[in-house]
Amino acid sequence: MSPTDLIALCGLVFAAAVLYSMVGHAGASGYLAAMALVGVAPAVMKPTALTLNILVATVGTVQFVRAGNFSWRLFWPFALGSIPFAFLGGSLAVPVPLYKRVLAVVLLYAAYRLFRVPAAAGAVRPVRRPVAVGCGTGIGFLSGLTGVGGGIFLSPLMLLMGWADARRTAAVSVVFILVNSVSGLLGHLSSVRSLPREIGLLATAALAGGLIGSTIGSRRLPNPVLRRLLAVVLVVAAGKLFFT
User: Do 85 and 134 form a contact (C-beta atoms < 8 A)?
Assistant: First the structure.
């Protein structure tokens, strides 16, 4: 990786970590988009994104739990289904062309969710545990397969179904992302050998961004304009994955 590409990648990782951590995400889809734009090899993308996810989600977990927004009762049914299936998804070796296209679809969906800023939530209603376990199973498998943490799927689902308000959704999502990312990386532990030499710099950028974003996000929601700017980056990255 050239010095110019490294500087650009660190900047994009930092920006993604700030914005994503504001809403209780760890930024995996942003990191994957950044690596796609810079031209990082697909074999490197998944373990790198999961590693950065674990770091940022750990910071976010501490911030949101300290703020009193986390609900164990809401979290554990989703995690019960997701953890083993994130491990399963992480253990699968997907052909590079298929991986790039699946990832492109995930990035497009993430862009859609970022661009479509959710409306204010109505009355909160409880989620049935079998439904939560089933949702966690599907999200966990896709998370392990692609290298995302799953928050980009869980958060809009929880808000759409009225299972939690925005702040609690963010807190549950960030812990969900943490356990999924750990499980997905353990499922393909040998892929850690593919981490780039620059992982230390990328981790520093992600941690700095995650600390700033989660500090802000645990107290107030981010600017919709920033979310939409990141959505544009995700669309461009998805296009590059589709056509290269």
Answer: no
> Could you report the per-residue pLDDT of 178-187, keeping only the tens digit for each?
999 999 888 8
Which residues have C-beta within 8 Å of that of residue 19, sequence separation ≥ 6?
27, 30, 213, 222, 226, 227, 230
Segment of 2-16, 118-132, 189-203 carrying the highest mean pLDDT: 2-16
Q: Give tens-digit pLDDT for 125-136.
A: 888 999 999 999
Amino acid, res. 72: W
DSSP H helices in the chain? 3-22, 28-38, 42-66, 72-91, 96-115, 129-146, 151-161, 166-187, 199-217, 224-243
Per-residue 3-state assignment (H helix, E strand, C coil) for 13-33: HHHHHHHHHHCCCCCHHHHHH
Spatial neighbors of 151 by CB under 8 A, at least 6 apart, are: 20, 24, 25, 26, 173, 174, 176, 177
- Report how far residue 46's alpha carbon sits from residue 91's, in angstroms, rounded to the nearest whole number: 12
Q: pTM above 0.90?
A: no
At 162, which amino acid appears? Answer: G
Within 10 A of 90 (CB to CB), how many other CB atoms are there? 28
Alpha-carbon torsion (168, 171, 177, 179), positive or negative: negative
What's the rounded Cα separation, in Å, for the pair 238 and 199?
A: 23
What span, in angstroms and rounded, lies between the C-alpha atoms of 105 and 239?
Answer: 10
Backbone CA torsion sign across 15, 157, 238, 116: negative
